[in-house]
Amino acid sequence: MLQKTDIDHWPGVVGFIKRTQLAMLPALSIQARYRLDNNNKRTDAMRKIDVHGIIDDARFNGFHWLIMGLCALLLIFDGYDLFIYGVVLPVIMEEWGLTPLEAGALGSYALFGMMFGALVFGTLADRIGRKKGITICFLLFSCATVLNGFASTPTEFAIFRFLAGLGCGGLMPNVVALMNEYAPKKLRSTLVAVMFSGYSLGGMFSAGLGIFLLPRFGWEVMFFAAVVPLLLLPVILLYLPESVGFLVRQGRSEEARALLKRVQPEAELPADAELQMLDTSGQKNSVLDLFRGGRLLGTLSIWVAFFCCLLMVYALGSWLPKLMANAGYSLGSSLSFLLALNFGGMFGAILGGWLGDRFHLGKVVVAFFAVSVISISLLGIKTPMPVLYTLITIAGATVIGTQILLYAAAAQFYGLSIRSTGLGWASGIGRNGAIVGPLLGGALLGINLPLQLNFIAFAIPGVIAALAMTLFVLSGKQQGTATAPAPLMAAKV
Question: What is the pLDDT of residues 392-436, one digit of tens each?
């Protein structure tokens, strides 16, 4: 900076001007510094790119179609594997002479695996990348399901079901997290729900193939059919994108820029600009992070909702054909009920996602649980076939469909850096309910309760889940108030 002693000897007009500027410097310095600070801020802003903003404001395009299609395809295979046990259950009970309680325990082995898979692979994917996590899970459940067809004893069957469950449990939270990450904000719930409808479509394929294949070729061929997904592994490896948040955390900025260009082709991404995601700080995450930042009540509430919802899903998915067969319906008709249940799940997921993007997703989930309680309770009443199919479809829409909406709600509740961890733990806790579901069905059949009481018992968890989600909605409002100053945090449910 110029000092007065430096210019006192300057002659003429130049000296006069310089001395006048120096005399005015104290008055001008505040304005000059203000302009300089603003210029620096604008320069810093120009050098930082809000990744969330680019994704949230993107138009739905072919890249989103690709992600949704691949994730839906993965969940079709996942859903097929999960519902296959309910399809073959009446046949293997007769072939191996299993009691209802033994059959329920055998069905729970896969769900034990799913619980551990969700906990392990959900957290692991936050560290190794979602694409690697998804690929590992896909290989694991596909290979284990094929091996299930070679099982000759209940023990061998249980071991392979457990291994398949590990892969299935890890796949779900990771594909949901990936779709949620890339989906435009205004379509987020809808796209996650449409993608997750592949899960119900897989259940429909399982029931449909069972109607045709079981009487002709036996139960083993249902598991051998899982070799087909393995043929699509190169497609998954080639076209499924990695999480952009993971790439940013790893410092792989060029790869992240290339993906963002596909998300929003018109976005300007200067080479010297920094990709900024406030909740991808690179810190190691733990389950304790799920309870920080005002998330304690919300995390506990959604865990309860997951537990109860998955209990209902797997109680119905495992025992609906057997319950209906005991009520006097043929095996073909009983499997067609499972088909209707999954069709309802697919329809309910899409409808719920559409409603969730226009209203409050948490409130939509509460309403779905309330309707599920009514529809399931009515299944035990003797009604004409069209009414029975309608009730089963509604039950599928509001139980399987609600499970899918719970994943969307959890994905939006947690920030990006802990999203796979949050989804993995919610899914893992929920798998305890999935384990209880088949056991509960087996115990109820073992004591020969009337059909109506069986379905009322399956509906009770829906009441508990509706109350839990009401608390979740209230906790979401509190968290939204607490985190309002952080514009780059994940959207509030």
Answer: 999 988 988 788 788 778 877 887 667 767 877 887 788 788 888
Q: Look at residues 420, 169, 421, 179 and name the one whose alpha carbon lies nearest to residue 314.
A: 169
Tokens 């089963």 belong to residue? 392
pLDDT band for position 332 (cuts 50, 70, 90): low
Say if residues 401 and 351 touch (Cβ distance below 8 Å).
yes
Q: Measured between alpha carbons, how far is residue 488 from residues 127, 189, 295, 482 in Å?
A: 21, 18, 17, 14
Helix or strand or coil: residue 50? strand
Other residues' Cβ atoms within 10 Å of the Cβ of residue 77: 25
Is 370 exposed, middle or buried (CB count within 10 Å of its CB: 0-12, 13-18, 19+)?
Answer: middle
Q: Which of 68, 78, 315, 107 is nearest to 206 (CA)?
A: 78
CB of 149 closer than 8 Å to CB of 22: no
> Which residue(s) pair with 49 in the sheet?
275
* Predicted TM-score (pTM) of this structure: 0.68
Name the percent of the chain in helix, strand, coil, to the closest 5. 80, 0, 20
- Using only C-alpha atoms, what is the Rg of the chain? 28
From CA 203, how far away is CA 397, in angstroms rounded? 13
| Interacting residues of 406 by C-beta distance below 8 A, sequence separation 6+ | 302, 305, 306, 309, 365, 426, 430
Between CA 216 and CA 367 the distance in angstroms is 42
Weakest mean pLDDT among 67-76, 215-224, 245-254:
245-254
Contacts of 272 (CB under 8 A, 6+ apart): 47
DSSP assignment string, 62-108 = HHHHHHHHHHHHHHHHHHHHHHHHHHHHHHHHHHHT--HHHHHHHHH
Domains and CATH numbers, the chain: 52-265+275-481 (1.20.1250.20)
Q: Are 10 and 18 in contact (CB under 8 A)?
A: yes
Residue among 408, 434, 424 nearest 349 (CA): 408
